[in-house]
Amino acid sequence: xxxxxxxxxxxxxxxxxxxxxxxxxxxxxxxxxxxxxxxxxxxxxxxxxxxxxxxxxxxxxxxxxxxxxxxxxxxxxxxxxxxxxxxxxxxxxxxxxxxxxxxxxxxxxxxxxxxxxxxxxxxxxxxxxxxxxxxxxxxxxxxxxxxxxxxxxxxxxxxxxxxxxxxxxxxxxxxxxxxxxxxxxxxxxxxxxxxxxxxxxxxxxxxxxxxxxxxxxxxxxxxxxxxxxxxxxxxxxxxxxxxxxxxxxxxxxxxxxxxxxxxxxxxxxxxxxxxxxxxxxxxxxxxxxxxxxxxxxxxxxxxxxxxxxxxxxxxxxxxxxxxxxxxxxxxxxxxxxxxxxxxxxxxxxxxxxxxxxxxxxxxxxxxxxxxxxxxxxxxxxxxxxxxxxxxxxxxxxxxxxxxxxxxxxxxxxxxxxxxxxxxxxxxxxxxxxxxxxxxxxxxxxxxxxxxxxxxxxxxxxxxxxxxxxxxxxxxxxxxxxxxxxxxxxxxxxxxxxxxxxxxxxxxxxxxxxxxxxxxxxxxxxxxxxxxxxxxxxxxxxxxxxxxxxxxxxxxxxxxxxxxxxxxxxxxxxxx
Length: 575
Known about the structure:
The structure is a single chain. The protein is mainly β. It contains eight helices and 40 strands. An eight-stranded antiparallel sheet has the order 7-5-2-3-13-40-39-38. Helix 4 (158-165) crosses helix 7.
């Protein structure tokens, strides 16, 4: 069976290579969709297209071209290749089009009307401008703060070494320089991070679990002195200058991002996305953690439907859809069940009595019997809602203060958990109710998400060390791959239908990275806006969906990357 499958894949690969080199077995070798996209016309009925050129006084690669549909507040972004660009699948309407490229100016907004069918055209001429170093993505960072090299931002010394093994594990290197705190404030922050009290947020961020060496009393004073000296009340906010990502213009020229911007709530309450989930009918469901909504967006029409969370203590985090079409989400204190047709909600508390600390449900999973599971980050547990009994049970992860975060169900109904602070993977056998923990090669580290591929291998992202890795559950063997750009921050990793992996990374300002395990090649797709993408979903068509959690609240969007826009046949989003 495996040999037959391999031969079929080889045949498909050979066909792809022939097309790439312009060798077609017959006149009809290309699909209609490919012909349409190459000709600059839309590939979906009743949609529009746009193309043009971008000129400049000196050579450049992969400029970003933006087209915003003013009526629907949908933003499209493509990259230039050889100074040319092309959009497909555009909703008809009024558009604002502009270009950005670091080191250039002059790509100001031009307005154009786009109709169904015919191709519109807009050209740009750039001028030389100033360049600005790249910067990581962290919530609340000023847009134009001064950027410094690492050794300038963090002068070498014992204090920096302590920061690197403690603070940077979670916060990265671009967080501390924005805190102009005095000695008391830095001591209070360290107390909070070291606390294992049930009411800390969350308990044990810096503990024997996450930082085996700990922070001795003498080291603590060294750390505080360093923080006050470099990031005290008299310091200026500043950030870390990092290298630009490598640009594969040929790959980028095929790609197109689309971001659907969510409408404001009537109350004016800020909106903040977390996870998204593709549905059985092509809608995209989402969690709005600030606006306290669970909702859906139809990408075929860019229309939104919100359902207010009726239990404030059960605000959402992750979500999924069961076989009956109901939406389940991991709430702060309970499972939430949403009727996908009416929006009515039911709640199933993790604890019968109110616990000292809200468990903070994170990532829901569903097994073959349609039981619903979730990680409980603040109480180091995994919870199960039983389909037959309607009861909730809980199981404690062996390592204390481990912060179970991302989770996934494998084909054998084993629950796999990423232990954020412990930097371990835990397999929970749902039949024997036993845990087995596995440790990556890089320690100390932090791990937020993992996934299981088509062969049962477990892939994980180590955000604090800029690496991804693979665990063979049968042998316990682990391999890791370092991202090619320093200060990467991989958050999630998911397999596509071609057996490549996609990584959500906020290290260079936010974007998606494709990793090809056969060649170990990384291809970077810088994002539409500066944001992180905490959870990604791969559609049936190999499009990559995400949310813009850390972006400006006014720019909250459900986003999708089409790695090859010529292959778009529908805007529906299904698995």
